[in-house]
Inverse folding.
């Protein structure tokens, strides 16, 4: 699935982050203009390089010599910041090319986000920068920061500079990016760099991921996305980058209201949220649902090691918040283990007799600085704890200082004994003291105001670490399938009838070409043939309408089950035929399908639909009516790896039924996974298949395989791939 980082992509982005000379085109003397604010930000951020204002009407701006044109600047320029009206942009790009400027940030709005004229202007812009070999961030963006103390580049129009640290952020929304940058100081969130990508006419989030993959200053990557450019490329890059550095994404457009807003906001196709979840699941991306989660994950993952396991110790001075914290841990799939006798007796030796020692450990409201220090050290060094959450509620304002000092002392002592391999999260519920920071030997500990937040961070971190430790999945190749035959069936159906459902016979032939395990049976066109076939198969049998036009056959009584003799089969054929005649749909009847009745086993379903941006999306769940009532379905984006197939099967809530439940034999899980992988290969190789449904599929006992009972396949003339 993965490939090596693109060296030329990384090299081409370096001028954005490490420029020696920055030209501001559209520099202005008016303090309210963006062209002035960009210079102000560069100056106030103490940019280590040279700032070069370009303005034909000025000789000096903000105390700096101004140049009438790019050509009049004597030395080389590494980066151009462009803040001119939209109709002047293309000419400025030509000027940048003439000056051999390798990179440009286009702040100007008025492009694809504004409608058809803007879209065509942006297309011209994209073609021009590619023709000149210039890398471009924007248009319609807020700018870029590199907080490396050797660079100190604030190429945005806000003077607010967050603290330097190890987190890189890319945002598709300038406003949301600004909110994160301004919140960073309050949250003690240290940033390595920040990029507002705007309309991503050239540089995309995918390019930035490749850059940050090799960036020594970055440990954690945050992305705010409103769409996904080139999802398959994102998947390959994110899966590779995620093995070294966690990627946290806040993806807008979870709901239909949010999706339509995202579409109008970025002039981008809003994506199917199911496909987004599936894709993130496959490539180890940590998804945040809210801005609070996004920021909490940023501080938690960047400031602390990943937990080695699910066992959480909770230390509190108040029972209620401690219980809320424990409940959140349970909700997030973590354990709050009862502490060992050894740990409890160690705690009892210095805590008051009224303290609760089992976990959560409640030191009670008036515990001293020394008691806090010893309790923190005892819990952190306990073998039965993988992570520690400290919950403090202010009883008296004057106690906050000593409690904080005790916490820091305890952490310092534990770190000296066991090192820094266990993460610590602090929930500081102290009104009028909420800005307090906890720093131990230069390490600032993540601090939150609500007792539920740390559990969420730990659970996401554990899921990510589990994903990271597993080997990459492989896409299997099949030598026993006949792709040419499968493709020919689809092509012939399209040329003869156009888009629509395949006939039952075509469907069976196609599944046969893929060596998919179809239950035996054939289509016949008379009652006599149905009886003859039923006798050959052996009773009881099922008789079903064969029709590509009528999809829901059960609803019109066109599925007859458990037919025990010739008379019942003849009656079933005639009943189905007369029902269609009554509905004036006799021409929709291709015949009837006669199959043996299957008993035992769990019914499952496998389906596929095509997302306009992501391509084929495979679905797996319990079959029959379960899928409609319970909605217990897992999705993955094609191509599926063996690991994807394994996870899909195990992640449905009904997996326990497949493992063998209440005396039932365990299902043949390998056979289920094989169907998923063959289906993935089929729909990837034959894009004319637009929709597919195998439901029900009967799972047999381990080693005996599966049987596809019912299948529907729809074909459509191939659409052009989506453009961005």
């Amino acid at each position: 699935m993965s490939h090596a980082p693109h060296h030329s992509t990384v090299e081409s982005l370096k001028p954005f982050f490490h420029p020696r000379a920055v030209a501001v085109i559209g520099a202005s003397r008016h303090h309210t203009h963006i062209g002035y604010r960009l210079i102000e930000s560069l100056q106030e951020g103490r940019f280590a390089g040279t700032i070069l204002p370009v303005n034909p009407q000025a000789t000096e701006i903000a105390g700096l010599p101004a140049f009438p044109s790019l050509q009049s600047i004597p030395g080389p320029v590494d980066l151009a910041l462009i803040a001119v009206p939209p109709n002047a942009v293309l000419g400025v790009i030509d000027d940048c090319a003439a000056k051999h400027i390798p990179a440009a940030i286009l702040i100007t709005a008025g492009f694809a986000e504004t409608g058809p004229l803007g879209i065509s202007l942006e297309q011209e812009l994209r073609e021009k920068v590619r023709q000149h070999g210039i890398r471009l961030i924007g248009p319609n963006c807020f700018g870029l920061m590199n907080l490396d103390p050797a660079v100190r580049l604030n190429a945005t129009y806000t003077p607010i500079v967050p603290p330097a640290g190890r987190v890189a952020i890319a945002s598709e929304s300038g406003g949301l990016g600004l909110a994160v940058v301004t919140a960073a100081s309050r949250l003690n969130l240290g940033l390595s760099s920040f990029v507002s990508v705007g309309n991503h006419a050239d540089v995309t989030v995918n390019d930035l991921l490749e850059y940050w993959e090799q960036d020594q200053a970055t440990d954690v990557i945050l992305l705010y996305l409103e769409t996904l450019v080139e999802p398959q490329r994102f998947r390959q890059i994110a899966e590779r980058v995620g093995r070294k550095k966690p990627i946290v994404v806040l993806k807008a457009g979870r709901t239909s209201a949010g999706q339509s807003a995202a579409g109008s906001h970025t002039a981008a196709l809003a994506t199917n949220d199911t496909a987004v979840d599936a894709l993130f699941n496959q490539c180890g991306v940590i998804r945040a649902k809210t801005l609070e989660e996004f920021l909490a994950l940023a501080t938690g993952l960047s400031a602390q090691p990943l937990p080695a396991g699910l066992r959480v110790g909770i230390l509190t001075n108040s029972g209620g918040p401690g219980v809320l914290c424990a409940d959140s841990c349970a909700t997030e799939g973590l354990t709050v283990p009862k502490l060992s006798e050894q740990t409890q007796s160690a705690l009892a030796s210095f805590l008051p007799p009224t303290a609760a020692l089992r976990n959560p450990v409640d030191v009670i409201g008036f515990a001293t600085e020394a008691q806090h220090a010893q309790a923190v050290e005892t819990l952190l060094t306990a073998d039965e704890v993988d992570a520690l959450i400290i919950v403090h509620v202010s009883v008296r304002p004057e106690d906050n200082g000593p409690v904080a000092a005790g916490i820091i002392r305890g952490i310092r002592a534990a770190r000296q004994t066991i090192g820094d391999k266990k993460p610590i999260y602090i929930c500081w519920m102290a009104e009028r003291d909420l800005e307090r920071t906890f720093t131990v030997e230069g390490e600032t500990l993540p601090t939150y105001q609500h007792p539920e937040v740390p559990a969420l961070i730990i659970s996401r971190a554990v899921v990510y670490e589990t994903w990271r430790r597993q080997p990459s999945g492989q896409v299997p190749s099949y030598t026993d399938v006949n792709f040419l035959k499968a493709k020919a069936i689809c092509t012939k159906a399209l040329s003869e009838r156009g888009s629509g459902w395949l006939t039952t016979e075509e469907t069976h032939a196609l599944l046969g070409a893929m060596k998919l395990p179809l239950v035996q049976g054939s289509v016949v066109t008379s009652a006599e043939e149905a009886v003859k076939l039923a006798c050959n198969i052996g009773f009881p049998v099922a008789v079903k309408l064969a029709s590509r036009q009528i999809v829901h056959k059960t609803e019109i009584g066109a599925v007859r089950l458990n037919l025990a003799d010739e008379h019942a089969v003849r009656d079933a054929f005639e009943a189905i035929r007369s029902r269609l005649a009554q509905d004036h749909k006799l021409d929709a009847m291709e015949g009837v399908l006669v199959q043996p009745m299957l008993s035992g086993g769990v019914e499952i379903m496998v389906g596929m639909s095509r997302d306009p941006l992501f391509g084929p999306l495979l679905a797996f769940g319990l079959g029959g009516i379960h899928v409609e009532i319970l909605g217990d379905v897992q999705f993955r984006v094609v191509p599926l790896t063996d690991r994807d197939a394994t996870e899909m099967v195990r992640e449905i809530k009904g997996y326990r039924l497949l493992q063998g439940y209440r005396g039932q034999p365990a299902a043949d899980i390998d056979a289920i996974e094989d169907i998923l992988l063959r289906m993935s290969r089929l729909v990837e190789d034959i894009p004319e298949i637009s929709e597919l449904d195998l439901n029900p599929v009967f799972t047999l006992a381990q080693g005996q395989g599966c049987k596809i009972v019912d299948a529907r396949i729809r074909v459509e003339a191939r659409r052009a791939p989506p453009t961005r």
